[in-house]
Please model this.
Amino acid sequence: MKYKSYKGMNCSMAQALDAIGERWALLILREAFYGKTRFNQFREELGIARNILSARLNHLVDEGILEKRQATETAHTEYILTEQGRALRTVILSLIHWGDEYRPNPNGQRYEFLDAESGEPLRQMDIYTESGDVVKPGMVRIIPGPGLGAGQEGQPE
Amino acid sequence: MKYKSYKGMNCSMAQALDAIGERWALLILREAFYGKTRFNQFREELGIARNILSARLNHLVDEGILEKRQATETAHTEYILTEQGRALRTVILSLIHWGDEYRPNPNGQRYEFLDAESGEPLRQMDIYTESGDVVKPGMVRIIPGPGLGAGQEGQPE
DNA sequence: CAATATGGTTTCATTATAAAACCATTCGGT
DNA sequence: ACCGAATGGTTTTATAATGAAACCATATTG
Model:
């Protein structure tokens, strides 16, 4: 793969987008998050071309985000989220919340989300300090870390 | 526009990805989040081709995610996050956190994030119930909402 | 044993991206 | 007034990714 890859940027977000930034990848992962596991489930739900779906699933398996399994007995293939894949839930839910807010479906939300244990609804995704206060938009301060060559300073939004 | 656009899926996450899912878009928005505002700042920081950067900036302006301004006096152009754009901070920070965790930069993080008011570091992005409990991976329950159902199943095209 | 389900791969036309060249305006100095 | 650099683009042209359709190989079902 030569066209893509933001490699050479030693930046973790670019690496993240190398793993999941291709067209369809996040929608596939959303379906996985919703519990879909099979090739044809993804295909039918998303209307994605077979060859592209195949390429994406292989890529996500290579990246360690999905795991490919042969279901015993029934002998069909399953694609299951790994721990890395499940860790993308914050990305997925942030996107869904943003879309619900700024690009809403005229018929209302397709799904609603609850805590499986308590049955409580979820909070909107937000940014918190370690002591639990909400950080307001524009109030994130960005400071250089060890991975940056000394000098440049990031500014608040 | 035939290649892009996940239209026809009446799903807010697909709409979100139509707005910000193209190659480079999220990296541009990250730079905007970091305080960059100018064409050449984006270009130099990201190494993106001028024509593509131009196309992306125009698209993000059309989507209402960036606002284009003529800086008074100095007469240079500025691209500023709108409220919609700032609301993508949860998406951006989720991606950065995931990348830091699973695709770390060998030299360490490029930036660290603090609450501008208290100076406190930020929590890892996570999912919370309305009463403030963390929802563990795999413990989100997804139930059908009003947008699902009646004669509209993700009919592609 | 034929039909169907499943999970693909191959081919080819279309579309997006990247690099480089070119362009127009403004600004700062002499 | 003139020169050169800075800024913010647009226009080519080659290459790479995508999408649709056709094809294929096993398994299972009836």
Notes: The longest strand of chain B covers residues 66-70. Chain B touches chain A through 96 residues (CB under 8 Å). The longest helix of chain B spans residues 89-102. Strands of chain B lie at 66-70, 77-81, 111-115, 140-144.
